[in-house]
Specification:
The protein has 545 residues and is an alpha/beta fold. It has 16 helices and 20 strands. Bound molecules: alpha-D-glucopyranose and calcium ion.
Length: 545
């Protein structure tokens, strides 16, 4: 058994700063706004805030295009505000995790401004260039946000490589100078007292464009180990890599308990289950529950004792889980709680995305003009050209668009949901009059209080952070149930993942167990109501604790 790390029973809360709380009426959330809401987060019980990028940026991809890694964008505040946030959060027992975007910078970063001047500029080799002729692309590789991955620069008569937008040129990790610059920058933030880092698309840093390789390049783990040794290992941090291409084998490297890489990674195997095979996330398909269970169970069992999972349904790139795999109409609260129970009963570090704790839903804008996300806007144009009907493209956007997660946080039922006194950069979800934090804080039976309870359970019962995992009813298309075991202690999470009632016979065997939480007020019976979920605990050594 490896020693217990502080982040192994921590709960992380992700803030998307531009949509969380505006403090000065310009319609954009900011650092001062976050400071105002720290007591709310303390009340919820979280330990860590992961902040999506607040660095200086032209905001082509909402801050995932950084033009200065050592400064804060004026839109969000100042470096002093950031220092204040770190200090104030600490008073509430909360650490701040910064988002590190290291695969690419902004094209407005001074490095790129220099790099594109001439081939012998000292910064030229900070980026990935290929010779060619204008109009003759080095190869057919595509960028994630549409179009070619290559962009021509006449001054140097070369193409640069960009896996994301044209304004996000890829950094050249093969250049040791680039790596050194990055490590120094990380150390600089560590000195400021940040609690850790989330590493954006980290599995794409070791790209090999000539071989068509984006994720999982040959030198990937070599780079990560070097970075970890030069930086993270000098502190007691939580680090999480975003790795769309991770399988369990690779995840064991990333989250090796010896600390040689990261604390954990975000894997996305479960996230891709509701799309047509071999197609994109926009090509919708219903969720096969049995596959979801198999996938999560595999991650639970294979990493147990030799790696560490992150647990999440949501982030700023994903649709709202209650709309996606729950029911955001008549069973909104029940299904939001059910999804929370299923996730928070597992082993790993849970991540709550802002508003998830209120059961916030997707937004269904009727017209493309309401959308702001570069990925969504590019998709719309691209599919129109390919002959798709506007209503079909919108249906995909309603289901999967990133703006679903990016509408402003719903604080109360005043105008603009208490997010801003100005005009919000993206419209508030019209359902804010019903769904908001003020109501949730007052109602003891709210989704908020259910999350609060789950966080407490994780801290109180060691079996949640340490126990092994056994899936029950593997082939059942409605029930999601599992048992966690640690010595004589057992935890049962049993949920109806559907709108139709279903019988869960296992409940009979757990009659004498202690009920830790339940999303219905009615007595527990073996027939489960729509989206009903319960967590039970027992200790075979007599007393139930
Ligand atoms: C990650 C981020 C996403 C961003 C992309 C490029 O996937 O989560 O928001 O657009 O990387 O940086
Ligand atoms: Ca503001």
């Amino acid at each position: 058994m490896s020693e217990h790390k502080w982040w192994q029973n921590a709960v992380v809360y992700q803030i998307y700063p531009r949509s969380f709380q505006d403090s000065n009426g310009d319609g954009i959330g900011d650092l001062k706004g976050i400071i105002q809401r720290l007591s709310y987060l303390e009340e919820l019980g979280i330990d860590v805030i992961w902040l999506s990028p607040v660095y200086r940026s032209p905001q082509d991809d909402n801050g995932y295009d950084i033009s200065d890694y050592r400064d804060i964008d004026p839109m969000f505040g100042t470096l002093e505000d950031m220092e204040e946030l770190i200090r104030e959060a600490k008073k509430h027992g909360i650490r701040i995790v910064m988002d590190l975007v290291l695969n690419h910078s902004s094209d407005e970063h001074i490095w790129f401004q220099e790099a594109k001047k001439s081939r012998d500029n000292p910064y030229h080799d900070y980026y990935v260039w290929r010779d060619g002729k204008e109009g003759v692309l080095p190869n057919e590789m595509k960028a994630a946000f549409g179009g070619s991955a290559w962009e021509w620069v006449p001054e140097v008569q070369q193409y640069y490589f960009h896996q994301f937008s044209i304004k996000q040129p890829d950094l050249n990790w093969e250049n040791p100078k680039v790596r050194r610059e990055i490590y120094d920058m990380i150390l600089w933030w560590m000195e400021k007292g940040v609690g850790g880092f989330r590493l954006d698309v980290i599995d794409q840093i070791a790209k090999e464009p000539d071989l068509g390789i984006t994720a999982n390049g040959p030198r990937l783990h070599e780079y990560i180990r070097e970075m970890s040794k030069e930086t993270f290992q000098k502190g007691d941090l939580i680090t999480v890599g975003e790795a769309w291409g991770a399988d369990t084998k690779r995840a064991k490297l990333y989250s090796n308990p010896d600390g040689s890489e990261f604390s954990m990674v975000f894997q996305f195997e479960h996230v891709g289950l509701d799309q047509q095979e071999g197609k994109t996330k926009w090509d919708l398909a219903p969720l096969p529950l049995i596959k979801l269970k198999q996938t999560l169970a595999k991650w639970q069992t294979e990493l147990h004792g030799c790696g560490w999972n992150s647990l999440f349904w949501n982030n700023h790139d994903l649709p709202r889980i209650v709309s996606r795999w729950g029911n955001d109409r008549e069973y909104r609260k029940e299904s939001a709680k059910m999804l929370a129970a299923v996730l928070h009963g597992m082993q790993g570090t849970p991540y709550i995305y802002q508003g998830e704790e209120l059961g916030m839903t997707n937004v269904y804008f009727e017209d493309i003009s309401h959308y702001r996300d570069i990925e969504t806007l590019n998709l719309y144009e691209e599919r129109l050209k390919e002959g798709y009907k506007p209503e079909d493209i919108l249906a995909s956007i309603h289901a999967k668009g990133r703006d679903n997660a990016r509408t402003p946080m719903q604080w109360d039922d005043s105008e603009n949901a208490g997010f801003t006194r100005g005009t919000p950069w993206i419209e508030v979800n019209p359902n804010y009059t019903q769904i908001h934090a003020k109501e949730s804080m007052q109602d003891p039976d709210s989704v908020f209080h259910f999350y609060q309870k789950l966080i407490r359970i994780r801290k109180e019962y060691l079996v949640v952070s340490e126990g092994s995992f056994t899936l029950l009813y593997e082939e059942d298309p409605q029930i999601f149930a599992y048992v966690r075991t640690l010595g004589t202690q057992e935890l049962l999470v049993c949920a109806n993942f559907s709108k139709e009632p279903v019988v869960c016979p296992v409940i009979e065997e757990w009659k004498d167990a202690r009920m830790l939480t339940h999303n219905y007020q009615t007595p527990l019976q073996k027939e489960f109501k729509p989206y009903e979920a319960v967590i039970l605990f027992r200790d075979k050594k007599g007393a139930a604790r």
